[in-house]
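Hi U.,

Before I forget, here's the chain from the pilot set. I'm dumping it here mostly so it's searchable later in email.
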Amino acid sequence: MSLQQPAVFCNMVFDWPAQHWTAKHLSEVLQGKQIRFRMGTKHTDTAPQFETTCSFVEATLEEFLTWNCDRSSISGPFRDYDHSKFWAYADYKYFVSLFEDKTHIFQDVIWSDFGFPGRNGQESTLWIGSMGAHTPCHLDTYGCNLVFQVQGRKRWHLFPPEDTPFLYPTRIPYEESSVFSKINVVNPDLKRFPQFWKARRHMVTLSPGQVLFVPRHWWHYVESIDPVTVSINSWIELEEDHQARVEEAITRMLVCALKTAENPHDTRAWLNPTEVEETSHEVNCHYLNGAVSAFFDHYGTSKVVETQALSTNREYVIKEELNVHNHVEVEQTSSHSLTLGTVKQEAASPFGPDLVPVIPGSQEPPSERGGMFESDGEDFVDKNGKHFGKLHYTKRQRMMSESENAVVEQIASNSTVAPSQTFISTDDLLDCLVNPQVTRIVAQLLIQGRSLQL
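Structure:
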């Protein structure tokens, strides 16, 4: 994929059967099938609402829609949840499980239109939520992401990969392929996380019929801003995923080992409910060996692999130095890069009325009255005359003196205890050990060492 920044496709799915997949339609298709809903509170705290702090309800879509009509006297699975105080989210619903007896429905989603031959709903997940339902800020370690908005609107808050130190990454709660931020990006605690103000927020409101492209390792917080929202997404595999799986296996082994040693009898506080596999050391060792073996199965054991690992490591170190010492320069160059590979000549911009870039916007939450981009800019209209809102770019003067201690500051600032009373917890240690920068280097060393033995 050549795009290196988030972008919205405005006229790609008008002929998809799935454009009619409202929650009401899906309730008829699923015919009383039980679905797990995550229940969260609508109050806005400075701490993220991770899945480990939420409760869960097993219900049908019909029961969800009835509750969502704000019928406070209803009985059934949602009876303990006041609609005015709670939201519900059926998230990460894989098509292959949800429609296991209706596989013909996979053809209603046509990702092949985006240049991925044969790709359809079989490689997709479904998301259905009420107003306020959201996903905490995180990045996906595997692939890039295409998101089709079917019903209602969702607001996306996105941050580029090079801003990772300012997002205070953590692997607690642990979920494979998800690196969470400790920050509630819509209500940040800047006293605890002072580096966050340096992060460059990109915001877009995705409307029905639009598809958002999220590049690899872009952070995102997603919230439903209409009474009912329905989305379909697909994670597109990338070449970098082979090493990322090794990094994830290392992370899994370290997190499970230390957190299990800390409290062998309770995983609920640190293991996301989505993680259903066994977390024993034996299983994790097998998982790591499998990831390393898969890497070599793909690349072989030739000298090319060793060279690639070494050069990747050098490029990464150089890039990180640029991110820390020359953040403004990086903002002017890498964040606007649109092409991959070794193309030397500047490519023509792919953007236009039907492909709109998501560009840096204001830190303040936008007005819901705006279009796709909350702004005072010029309207974007597709070739059929359909209005897609306005673009906006808010310039902020950045008088930043970047420090090579950015990552250290991110960890140190989490402590609210006086320096003389500092207590280093298991989570503090894990924030260092499984920081994405660290696991990337460890994975490369592991691969290099293994390649020398083969």
